[in-house]
Amino acid sequence: MLSREDFVSRFGGVFEHSPFIAERAYDAGSVIEPLTASGVHAALAAVFRAASREERLGVLRAHPDLAGRLAISGELTEDSRREQSGAGLDRLSPAEHARFTELNSAYVEKYGFPFIIAVKGLGKEDILEAFETRIGNGRDEEFSTATAQVEKIALLRLTSMLPEAQ
After folding, report:
1. Active-site annotation holds for 41
2. Is pTM, for the whole model, over 0.70?
């Protein structure tokens, strides 16, 4: 079994900049060997769901804006950089970048956290369409949607890190 320190070092960033989730999952004894993507995800997601609304909001706020200033300055986490690049968000035209910037600002102003979507398998057009649709959601609906997307991102990250059970 991995030590707590090794587990948190390996999986503490699966939920963006929120190692408390890995710490609590480990401390609860809900991490079962052999480690699989679905097993670790279940343990981490249970902690995320049990966290207070403020803690979950903190996890949402830890996510970067899509095609935002962190991407431009090269300050994204490696996972976020790879995910955004895979969706073409590092190759936006000036007009597309302006639209993302406008939507990012309006979204954060309305909801208090950045727009979050699991971008794997999506193109920039798909993301913009989802952005434009979801900005019309009510606050509670969007909080639920964003937290579900965070869990989906975590599973995608874990799937790239761990095997599934045979």
Report:
1. no
2. yes
